[in-house]
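Batch manifest, entry 17 of 40.
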Amino acid sequence: MPRAGDAMVLSGLWAAYIAQSVIGGLTWGGLPAVLRDQGLPLDRIGLLSLLIAPWALKFLWSPRIEGWRIRPGRSPRTAQVILWTGTVAVAGLILSGWLGLVPLLPVLACLMVVAIATSTADIAVDGHAVGVLARRQHGWGNAAQVGGAYVGSAIGGGLLLVLTAAMGWQGAVWALAALVAALLGWFALTARNAPPAPWNGAEPSLRRALSRLEIRKGLWLAGSFVLAQKFALGMFGPFLIDQGLPLVTVGLLSGFGSLVLGLTGAVIGGASVRRFGVHATLLAALAVQGLCMAGLMLGAAGGIPVPVLAGICLLSGSALLSFGFTALYAQFMRWSDQAQGGVDFTLFQCMDGGLSMAIGTIAGFLAQQAGYGTLFGTALTLGLISGMALVWRRSAITTPAG
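Output type: structure tokens
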């Protein structure tokens, strides 16, 4: 377990990552359902995908943010960045609630400002984590990162619907805005007394990041692991629907079930990183993922009960995903330079996010044209290739336990 002295730092990280994911869950999880319930056409709801752009492109302005946040030999200005960006994000949420959902474009404009502010805050939070967490804390820090994402997404995507039904869009969004403000405020308090940044005359930059071997290894690792773990992820819901499960059942499973399993997987992943190291944890995630893909491939051909298939989808898409990505992000943290942690870590995240968007389209096309069996078989093959690459390049990942 984390030491008592680390509790303040870790609680702040949990608060920040939950707050950011509340906004993400509201935008991509809860809002589409609210819009459809009000009768908006699917093509307009599809415009919400534009709000992903700041998260995919934030690496472009990450050097500017880190250059202002980090002051060599002095305490970083993380709290100031969070207070400013958090104020913009909360104000945008309040304005979104006041405007209402019709017409949609003004609300999208507000939410785009919120997305830019939140993705910018994420640069500072990740840089703060790289700077303040000791190596022994990386597993717990990334458990907060991944677990907080599951908790926040459940609040923004699930609780939003409950609140909207009870008090309308305005009251629901304002309630979540108050929650986000409280969480970011707590993080700012915990970040005020961060240790001085190491002295380094070089300005944070993308060129400096990409010149480091660790960053190039991290981008390779991100691409390999994301392909293996996320290739079939977006098709789990449609697969279960086609197996005969009602929509409401799939929603409950993916909502409440993934919250519990995702959070559990993140915590266990953090403990595994500390006890066994990153390399062993990544291999374990890939091995069990391979078994899950093999089971789903067989299930697509028939003969496996639907409840078993649903359990496999939950295990793979929630517990294993959070377990593996906790280890992956711990390694990213180790490879990030404290003098520009937000830049380095952001590059890894953008590789993850950009590739995830691309493979979702490919997976849907493959499932449509060749069937679910081919989809899951391809995911199994990618996992085997990724696992063999990890074994072959074990020396590239320095992962002593602790």
